[in-house]
Design brief:
The longest helix is centred in the last third of the chain and has 10 residues, at 205-214. The chain has helices spanning 180-187, 205-214; strands at 10-17, 20-30, 38-48, 51-55, 66-73, 76-82, 86-91, 95-105, 114-118, 129-132, 138-139, 148-151, 162-167, 170-175, 196-198, 201-203. It has two domains: 4-105, no CATH class; 114-223, no CATH class. The strands form three sheets. Strands 11-10-12-13-14-9-15-16 form an eight-stranded antiparallel β-sheet. Strands 1-2-3-8 form a four-stranded antiparallel β-sheet, with no helix packed on it. The chain is elongated. It is mostly beta strands and 225 residues long.
């Protein structure tokens, strides 16, 4: 059974009814990422009766499926998905049925843990926030690429902080071991940028500040590249 079509799709539901196991799977036939555009998905049911289900927890419907696979052994077929934890079903045979095709508007999905600023230089954040290499003491980087921002009083108890990557005039910050106030301060550096990228959104500085401080998104038209 070829399950590659479901890579980066979704497993939205797992149902066990007596000996029957049913999975609802979504595969993109037209994938769009920009807010306001329309993706086309095919919704399938993968079922078997009788079947054995192994699942530590239900799937997360918004989690992109990882490594969908199937294998045969001793006359049985096992299908496996990571959604995000492993879900495995074993049966003698499976039925795969196309239930419907859906068109879905792409929603804005800013990342909670990463942002990229179009900015030539990273402004200072105050004497209590310092640069450091992995596990190192406070330092002054000639180029912040590969360095972390961390609170001075956490250098002894933390190995990381907010990781920084630089490309041309773009600076990407990724949250690792950083408290909410530090991460908020780093994200608010976006007020000095000409644009901010986060998730599938592109923000003007004022819109980005409104999102960080109040959770308010602008009209979708202003979040497109």
């Amino acid at each position: 059974m070829n399950l590659e079509r479901f890579a980066d799709g979704h497993l939205t539901q797992v149902t066990a009814d007596g000996s029957r196991v049913s999975l609802l799977l979504e595969a993109y036939s037209e994938y769009r990422r920009v807010p306001g555009e329309v993706s086309v998905l095919e919704v399938f049911e993968l079922s078997a009766d009788p079947a054995e289900l192994q699942a530590a927890e239900p799937p997360a419907p918004d989690h992109a499926l990882e490594e969908p696979s199937s294998r045969e052994h001793d006359g049985l077929v096992t299908v496996e998905f990571f959604a995000p934890l492993r879900i495995r079903v074993t049966a003698a045979a499976f039925d795969l049925t196309l239930l419907r095709t859906e068109r879905r508007v792409v929603l804005p999905m800013p990342s909670a843990n990463a942002c990229t600023l179009d900015i030539a230089e990273v402004p200072q954040l105050g004497s209590d926030i310092v640069w450091r290499m992995l596990g190192g003491d406070a330092g002054t980087p000639a180029d912040p690429d590969g360095w972390f921002l961390q609170r001075r009083d956490r250098l002894a108890t933390s190995q990381t902080g907010v990781f920084c990557r630089t490309t041309a005039n773009r600076v990407t910050f990724e949250r690792h071991d950083a408290d909410d106030d530090l991460w908020r301060a780093v994200r608010l550096l976006g007020r000095h940028a000409s644009r901010v990228w986060s998730g599938n959104c592109v923000f003007e500085p004022a819109d980005w500040v409104a999102w960080v401080t109040a959770g308010t998104l602008p009209p979708v038209e202003r979040l497109r590249p």
